[in-house]
Amino acid sequence: MTDEHRTSPRTLIIGGHGKVALLLEPLLVERGETVTAVIRNPEHRADVEKTGAQAVVADVESLDLEQLTNLLSGNDAVVWSAGAGGGSPERTYAVDRDAAIRAMDAARDAGAGRFVMVSYFGAGPDHGVPEDDDFFAYAEAKTQADEHLQASGLDWTVLRPSALTLDPPTGRINAAAEKAASVPRGDVAAVIAAVLADASSIRRIISFNSGDTRIADAIRS
Q1: 65, 43 Cβ separation under 8 angstroms
Q2: What residues does 114 pair with on adjacent strands?
Q3: In terms of CB atoms within 10 Å, which end of the chain has fewer, N or C?
């Protein structure tokens, strides 16, 4: 296919009704992408469609690999912005690790080669969360999902924002911080949009807080 006949990029967002996702969707739509948002609750369809994205109702926790592959088919990029949102360790592992890993394998099988994972600042084998801490299951689930993505063969980016706030976005971050602080959700959405458009972010882990560097400059390798 020649460049002049290419269609707009197609991006699928898993966790499409999350606070970050609802801020990301209009950013991608405005720059001409075809955006599909996967949601669990059909009552959230209107919120998603207001952003210009297409809503698809599906529970990724319950879909097997073949079903997920069908769901992701036809897309160029996948953004994982879903999560169990706390609760039992069993459900945390089921969503934040197992469903995420199936989605990565499905993206590979579906030919959706670009995958952006929204993780958290501090994830990794040295996350340091003790086993008796309520946060342990999430830390372990995200760490294992991130590691699987890095070995997947996909064009991956792992984003690790610090504590999310509802403050107005600034368009600026600190991607060199060694300790977690906080960052507005609107800036996280802008970072996701920026890495999707910047090939230098492929196969990189980007941890960030709010800061003083323009997002486009902060993510450029």
Answers
A1: no
A2: 77, 155
A3: N
